[in-house]
Design a protein that fits this description.
The protein has 29 helices and no strands. It is an all-alpha fold. The protein has one domain: MetI-like (MetI-like fold). The chain is globular and about 70 Å long.
């Protein structure tokens, strides 16, 4: 960017206002809260102290949670890749009968996840779950608590986080050059050799990114360990939550959050370095579309079909049972025995007509809608400035706005609590902790990196000649943005807002730290119901909530992806896609996982 254009940009009153507001927001809600965590941990009285580290080392419970988190992160990185690569291959690479049906089953995690998914698995496989009750009737001596601890958490999170493979790895597989595969086959290479030596190496950049996502998801897990971990298996984030609720242990919570943040940054750095050390490309000058490969070995063909449909059953059984039991009466839910006579609309009537049932749903919708609109609306002009004017200042702003991508949500939430539990001049002397506003701020903050990156990519596709022509005719910056640029990017901006809205509807990880006691979002109510706080009615309500969330999420995904893809390739190019690139793997997902 030339010096003249830079000075012209800075002379615009609107740009100055945006710059000041952005600087305040970054300082108040991104930089200071995280810096304050470090100060509270290592400089509690204005001078360095290792007291928090001493308390951590002397706490067996905290040290065990650290070990559990890293064990889960490593195990999840392995299991998710195994299951994820398999389901991508059977739906996109190999010729498998019914592959489209299999895809629909594997894609059920697109429409539900997080605390909803963890609760669903507990209601089905838990100690009093539907499947467990049925199995106990067949095998009286079986352990009713078989689905708990590390095993249950790993299983649930494995199937929950294969969404990244279905989105990103499957998309990368479509870009593999079929001519390279044909050349290898003509040279005598077997199906498995081609897969191992050609196809999978070309997917390594995306697999590296998916591995990072899986590792970070396991490291910061909260929902699944709280719901299914029991007393024997707790991870870092639940411990942070426990210590945060006690003022005398907040320094220990802060230190655990710092360790979580440092581990996240180190993992990103190591995986990025490993990824950049490889070379992944096709040798063919003219690429051709990938065609599905037949499995020539009869035994292998049968085994892969069996494994594919067994996984299909695992993915779809929770969804089917949740939908069925959302219509079941209390007796059927308690006994686990479902019949046509037990089906009723009473559960839906209770949730949708009674204030106690409808209130958490409305609260979640209001929070999610406000956060989605504020995030997209607030970043529209910012994303354009960063994309249009490349200099050290805009680069600095861009890096700072990506802070929520490299720090866990627990650390961000704890920073807000510590920073604003007393009057703070950064927010006009107000106290935000314990108010309804602080959760909205957190929701907006965590969605900034994804929204910024998508909007920036959208503005890149806009024809610059339109803006230049308007500028030549004397139009001001704000007028050009409002009358020319905004109408072009508005459809994609609406799609991004819809995705953000979806991901926050059942949020638990952030809400558990910051929610107002009188305004509990849906995620907290679902968690309370999994603990039996509301009895059978609470379980029934959770089934209904889950179905309603799946309907809303599925409808939104159809509006964002389905309708646009039916309109053709041009519309598809404008869709929000993976913000993960080969040279910058970052922790972001479109759908929530069972964290």
């Amino acid at each position: 960017m030339s010096g003249t254009s830079a000075r012209s940009m800075l002379r615009s009153p609107f740009v100055i206002v945006v710059g000041v507001a952005l600087t305040w927001f970054i300082a108040a809600f991104l930089v200071w809260p995280n810096a304050n965590v470090l100060i509270a941990t290592f400089f509690p009285d204005g001078r360095f102290s290792g007291r928090a580290a001493e308390k951590l080392l002397s706490s067996d419970r905290a040290m065990k949670s650290l070990g559990n988190s890293f064990m889960l992160a490593v195990a999840l990185s392995i299991t998710v890749n195994i299951v994820g690569i398999f389901i991508v291959l059977v739906t996109h690479y190999f010729k498998i009968r019914g592959s489209r049906i299999l895809f629909l089953g594997y894609a059920t995690t697109f429409i539900y996840g997080g605390i909803v998914l963890a609760a669903g698995y507990k209601f089905i496989y838990g100690e009093k779950g539907i499947v467990t009750v049925l199995l106990a009737g067949m095998f009286p001596g079986m352990d009713a608590g078989w689905f708990s601890g590390f095993f249950a958490v790993l299983v649930v999170m494995t199937f929950a986080t294969t969404t990244n493979h279905m989105l990103f790895v499957a998309n990368a597989l479509k870009g593999v050059d079929f001519q390279t595969i044909e050349a290898a086959r003509n040279m005598g290479a077997s199906t498995w050799t081609i897969l191992r030596r050609i196809v999978l190496p070309m997917l390594k950049p995306t697999l590296f990114a998916a591995t990072i996502l899986s590792f970070l998801t396991g490291l910061g897990a909260l929902s699944a360990p709280q719901v299914l971990g029991g007393r024997e298996f707790q991870t870092i984030t639940p411990m942070i939550l426990t210590f945060t609720n006690s003022p005398t242990s907040r320094d220990l919570a802060a230190l655990l959050a710092v360790i979580l943040g440092v581990a996240t940054i180190l993992m990103l750095a190591v995986m990025t370095r490993l990824e950049k050390g490889g070379t992944y490309f096709s040798l063919s000058k003219v690429s051709s579309r990938l065609e599905k490969q037949a499995i020539t070995n009869p035994l292998a063909n049968v085994l892969i079909h069996v494994a594919a449909y067994l996984l299909f059953a695992v993915y779809t059984l929770p969804v089917v049972l949740i939908v069925l039991y959302s219509f079941a009466d209390s007796a059927a839910i308690q006994t686990g025995q479902l019949s046509l006579s037990s089906l009723t609309l009473e559960n839906y009537v209770r949730v949708l007509t009674q204030p106690s049932g409808l209130r958490p749903f409305i609260i979640s919708i209001v929070y999610s809608a406000l956060a989605a609109v504020i995030t997209v609306g607030g970043l529209l002009f910012v994303a354009r400035l960063i994309q249009k004017h490349q200099n050290w200042l805009t680069s600095l702003f861009e890096y700072l706005l990506h802070i929520p991508w490299i720090l866990p949500s627990a650390l961000l939430a704890l920073g807000l609590i510590i920073s604003y539990d007393h009057p703070n001049p950064l927010v006009g002397g107000a106290v935000l902790t314990g108010t309804t506003v602080i959760l909205l701020i957190a929701f907006v903050t965590v969605k900034i990196p994804f929204t910024l990156r998508m909007l920036k990519a959208t503005f890149t596709t806009v024809n610059s000649s339109l803006e230049e022509a308007a500028a030549i005719m004397g139009a001001r910056t704000l007028y050009i943005f409002r009358r020319i640029l905004l109408p072009i990017v508005l459809p994609t901006a609406a799609a991004i807002a819809a995705l953000n809205f979806n991901s926050m509807l059942d949020d638990y990880d952030t809400a558990i730290f910051l929610a107002h006691p009188l305004f509990q979002p849906l995620g907290l109510i679902i968690k309370a119901n999994t603990d039996g706080a509301e009895g059978v009615d609470g379980v029934s309500n959770t089934f209904v909530y889950t179905v309603l969330l799946m309907v809303i999420t599925g409808f939104t995904m159809y509006l964002v992806y389905g309708r646009a893809r039916r309109r053709g390739g041009r519309a598809s190019q404008k869709l929000p896609t993976s913000p993960t690139t080969a040279d910058t793997p970052v922790p972001v997902t479109v759908s929530s996982s069972a964290r």
